[in-house]
Amino acid sequence: METIFSGIQPSGSLTLGNYLGAMKQFVELQEDYDCYFCIVDEHAITVPQERLKLRNNIRELAALHLASGIDHNKATLFIQSEVPAHTQLGWIMQTQSYIGELERMTQFKDKSAGKNAVSSALLTYPPLMAADILLYNTSLVPVGNDQTQHLELTRDLAERFNNKYNDIFTVPQIKVSEVGARIMSLQEPTKKMSKSDQNQKATIYMLDEPKRIEKKIKSAVTDSDGVVQFDKENKPGVSNLMTILASCTNLTLDQIEEKYQGVGYGQFKQDVADAVVATLKPIQDRYHEIIDSQELDDILDHGAEKASRIANKTLAKAKKAMGLGRVK
Ligand code: TYM
Fold first, then answer.
1. Which residue positions does the secretion signal occupy (predicted)?
2. Residue 192 neighbours by CB under 8 Å, 6+ apart
3. Best label site of 116, 125, 144, 206, fewest CB within 10 Å?
């Protein structure tokens, strides 16, 4: 069975973008692949985090994976910092990365822009991400499309290492979902929906109450055409809502255009809100059942154990190939 790896940062409450761009795919993929889903807390600390908030976010994110339908009998769910091989291989991958290529990463440019105290880890974030993926002989990485640049770099680093030392790493393929790969801000629909947006109205969080979701969608920025038509360039707001509706139902974008011909934005927005609530409500109910459970801890303990077993094997091979440590 081929292996899938993906990670989400516990850097804030999870958004509808994270769900539609990543987590929803995870649930489908666990049926056919050996899946590793990782809460990448070591990535989250590349920017300042509050200790207690971080702890809560980690647990919330773990519970949301399970509530969304990740089955611990099919997939391995674990926390990055509980598997030390990640930072160990991360260091090794740093030795294979060039400062120039890291400085070219758009996520680094965005997150460091205008700041005078930027951690060096924000720059070396991609080699750690490469390590996450390469430790598990991953063949496929499902992500939203903001991560494709990091994944291209992961592929380059794997090939660079394999050519220089020994053919150890599987070079992973990128898997971006067809619809939902880039959910945009509700207030500035040319920007991606983000966990860290200061404007609360711009983002739907997975744990937002139904009334709040409805309110946010009703006040989403659209345009004055009154036509429900997919045109990202000229109608980014409406196109984003159409993408959300398509991702939350079985409707295609064409079917949505047809369905809303001659119907105003009022009804359209109401239907988008209903579809989002219908998608998130069952997840929220299940979330509240498991967030404080011992079961959640047991699953994470077991996940870290299993992940460590596989990760340590790959790490040992990489160390040996480079001549680190002693021969045993
Ligand atoms: P993160 O935590 O920012 O996002 C987690 C996943 O959600 C996707 N995503 C979106 N998809 C659609 N629309 C959006 N508005 C949106 N916002 C986020 C992301 O593409 C991602 O798939 N570097 C990664 C975390 C990571 C990782 C990994 C991912 C660390 N190691 C190894 C894959 C494999 C990140 O910051 O994702």
1. none
2. 17, 144, 146, 182, 183, 184, 185
3. 116
